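Troubleshooting log. The previous structure file for this entry was overwritten by mistake, so regenerating from the original sequence record. Sequence copied from the archived sheet and checked twice against the printout by T.R.
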Amino acid sequence: MKKSNIWRSASVKWTKAVIASALALTLLPPTLSYAAETPTASASAAARDTALTSSSVTAFLDEFFALEEIQELAPGAAVVVVKNGRVLAEKGYGYADVDSKRRVDPKKDVFRMASVSKTFTAAAVMQLVEQGKLSLDADIRTYLGGITFENPFAEPVTVADLLTHRSGFKIQDAREEDLNPAKGQSVSMEDYIAKYMPDVVREPGTAYMYDNFAFLLLGYIVQQASGTPYETYMERNVFAPLNMGSTDFTLTADLRKRSATGYAAEETIKPYPVSESFMPQGGMLSTADDIAKFMTAFLNEGKTASGAQLLKADSVAAMSEYRSAIHPLLPDSTYGFESASQLPGAGSSSKVITKGGDVPGASSLMFLIPEQDTGVFVVYNQNGALREQLYAAFIYRFFPQYAAEATFPAFAAESPEQLERYAGLYKDLRVESVVSKVGPGSRGRMVISDPLTGERALRQVAPGLFMDANKMLVAFKTAADGSVSYLKEPYLNPMGYEQKGAKPSGFNDIASTHPYAKYILDLQSLGYYPNDPNMAFGPDEAVTRGEYVDMLMRTSAIPLSESKPELKDTVGHPYAAAIQTAYEFGLISGNDKGMFQPDRPITRQEAALIIYNSTGSLYPEELLDSVKLTGKTDKWAVSAVKLVVALGYHGPEVKFSASGAADFQSKKTLTRAENAAINDMLLTSTVTGAASLKDAAQPASEEPAA
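Regenerated output below.
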């Protein structure tokens, strides 16, 4: 597959970043870094004027966007603030296009709204509910026609489940081709859904997982129930009543001309079309000025500026109410909105509803405080944390009551034995390469760790609720019998739950004392190996090149390529899709005859090189100088082996000399047990960042920090 256009280039870099996240590298700062620092930056302004007025909020925005650290987050941004039915401030900052020095104009410049589109799709659903054409409690099969899916549970998937991201569907996110289809290529929603319709894998209504496909289905349901093409329905019934003249799901000539240039991975992303299949969940284009019209109407019990009723007051109230929460301080979602980022000590206020969005080259956030009749929208042309910074600063400045630290009633502290029920591995429902490890700490505390943010001690503050040293909350979902099923944490993916792994049953050839038992059982708990104690694992069997790549793609959770295999000897091979995916992203290559040799046993240094190809560019070569090797390693693999040793992606087969030099046994064949160790460490190791490389070559302590 050729990678010639800018979108493809950015997509490859983004996907490599996803792989890198699975390989325990810190890609973005944790939420706290922007939630806690911004209020300090605005403290002097807050002392001057805390009432939300046109003059105070304009001064606040000017001060916020003048901060150097904020200007570094995006070339340009548009922001609008509404209150009591009028616009208090509407401003552009920076450049809509850097090369031409075109300044951002919030009334004219068009941005990708990304997932903010979902709120508008939800509004359309609620309109049809008002008309009796849809029922929130109806089985979605009622509206899907001939499209089918498997649901092994007694509970149906309802329209309300789709709206609240609790469908139970297996994750099915958009593909690259949806965001930038070939010229003239389009596909109907019906055909797309029929092709990619996922099955239900969790009981509907029981777990929160941010679900793009659910809102694609809702768009199709709007189309089915109304008898009108989705885009036409939105134009006639949502955009026109609001006089949103610069909003569309199609990149028209006018919108293209006014589009802000996006920036990602140091590349310029020009305005691009999207296929019809991608519209309802993230394809909307609009301006900050148009979004202000929606916010004003929503906060006015659904009544538009012209007096038309976009939504009934009851529908607005329904869309403002959280429908589930793993804990009251950590609500999940409403019909079309989600909770705000946590603020230290406060969690996320149920009085605030938000909707954020991201596509390459654009990030956005709409947040509303209905009881204050206040709404804020920001959009900018580079992905990053600017919106969370703005949200935190705005709340601390104008509505500090929503950032007040929570107080917790007295409760009986759980004993170490009782706390043990929280221990285990938890895999994110949507980003399956995100894994958290929870275990006992010292002084009656728990410890949570992951490859991206490291290790943190947790202090219990309420039943099922814990707080870390940054005053950020981690909550666990428990059943009536006390068993734990899910957790929700603030740093990795607050937009969903992580599911606790099953209790591993082991294999009949792996004793509890086996040196690789921990790694093998971890992967069995997470579902990468069958959980059947009657099966043999074969720990000493050689791993083939194809098997190794397949396992790496599985633990990295990278969507597999649908392209025809380019390496000749992989056509028709069981691991062809995984090998092609790794090939497309530059992790592997063929020999001079275009062959991969998928059935040849892989050597340990070859395995290390594949990992290095996904992450090595993130580490300057000189940082590996302190890593010393002993034994034989081919020259082409030295840097790769050093990196894998430094990051600890191996098992006890790697021996260290008295001077700290590692014998990686580079030329030996990789065994199944050793491969389990590599993949387990990729998923759970807490070695993070280049600064840790100097010490990482030494054997790690088994005792977690408290």
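The radius of gyration is 26 Å. Archived copy saved in two places this time.
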